[in-house]
Amino acid sequence: MFRAVDRSLLSSLYRDASFRISWGRIALKTSLIALLLVANTLVFLPFALCRRLPPVVLRSFFYKMYTRVLGIVLRTRGARLESSHVLYVSNHISYIDIAALMALTGARFVSRGDIASLPFFGWLMKSYGTVFIHRVRSDVRGQIAVLRRLLEKSSPLLLFAEGTTGDGRGVLPVKSSLFAAFESLDMQTLAVQPVSLRYSLLDGVPMSTYWEALCAWYGKMAFLPHLWEVLSLHRITIDVYVHPPKPVMQIENADAEQKAPFRKNPSRKSVARFCQEEIQKGCARLRYDAREEKSSFLTKKRRAS
């Protein structure tokens, strides 16, 4: 528990860092995002007409530009990111996560099928090679074929396994149903690499719980008002903890009924449980590191004052 002087010091620093809301900054960021969307559309349209996917370098470039305009800074720690035959599984806090992790990994995003029907943004996500998963039995066979082709091409995939966004203060239950399409694949060469996210700094100042929740987009929050608030902020630092990859075939089946000798793949529930545990461990470690960083930060500020 921080002393009153520490809370007062933090409050003044938050005001200095975050309440310097400049209409010029908002206007500039809005204009840059609009220009990026236009450029993105013009560059990706020929690929879409030819039914081809833009190169990874091009997709990563635009994602990096989006994160730069939004003022997102990424700090990675932990294991090295695998580049092929891997499924990245992460917790989900905001729409910012998508651009941040795609810029970092160059993976193809695995999303809910209903997102594909969104005007313009549905098309834009398709042009980035997003894989849409429909939770309908009649579509499972086709989805398995698509995933198999991607894995054969060594394309890394990114899945937000909570199925929705949270407030960043904890990890929501991982939905095993999102792994259903992977369950019937031959997973001999597939690895799962969990990733933990936490929004940690605002203009270089350690975030309080309030600011963490403000950066998160969850529940029934409207998109445009939240985006407006994000545009008003200067620089947001996201900590990314990368866990070691785990070959799917090494994940033990936790359910007794799934241990039948004829079963060649772990159950989706076992994979979901493994991801849940690893992501929670990573978030706990990031939160512990944040407390240490906040303590060190406040000590330096007190000495300086």
Main beta-sheet annotation: 9 strands, mixed
Beta strand count:
9
What class would the helix/strand composition place it in? alpha/beta
Radius of gyration: 21 Å
Q: In angstroms, what separates the terminal alpha carbons?
A: 21 Å
Order of helices and strands: HHHEEHEHEHEHEEHHEEH
Q: Could you say how many structural domains there are in total? A: 1
> Uncertain runs with pLDDT below 50, 5 residues or more?
1-7, 9-14, 256-262
Counting DSSP H or I runs of 4 or more residues, the number of helices is 10
CATH top level assignment: Alpha Beta
* Content of β-strand: 15-25%
Chain-averaged pLDDT:
79
Shape: globular
